[in-house]
Amino acid sequence: MKPWMAPFAGALSGFTSFVAHAGGLPVQVFLLGIKLDKTVYIATTVGFFTMINYIKFAPYAAIGFFTETTLLTSAVLAPLAVLCMALGVRLHDTVNQKTFYRVCYTMLLVVGLKLLADGLEF
Description:
This protein is an all-alpha fold.
């Protein structure tokens, strides 16, 4: 991957994140392609999607996305998110770089196939 591709991957991720909650693929493909250290990769991903989610907040509020149901669902799932983050930290410390990248590429393939299958069911 070339550095000049970063803005395109970021813009595409932002757009697909807003319209379909599927923003991970473009930026993940870019970040995996530049072969960052796993800690830098994770930190970059967390920072990027934290920014994206803050940017999406106002438009989502304006279109009425935040309902009692969505907020309740978020509250119920919040403890699971914390548990998964703790598991991720533990795995980060035990998994080597090569295994980490293999898992990332495998998950990228699985998610890509799932999104493709969903798109073909229109």
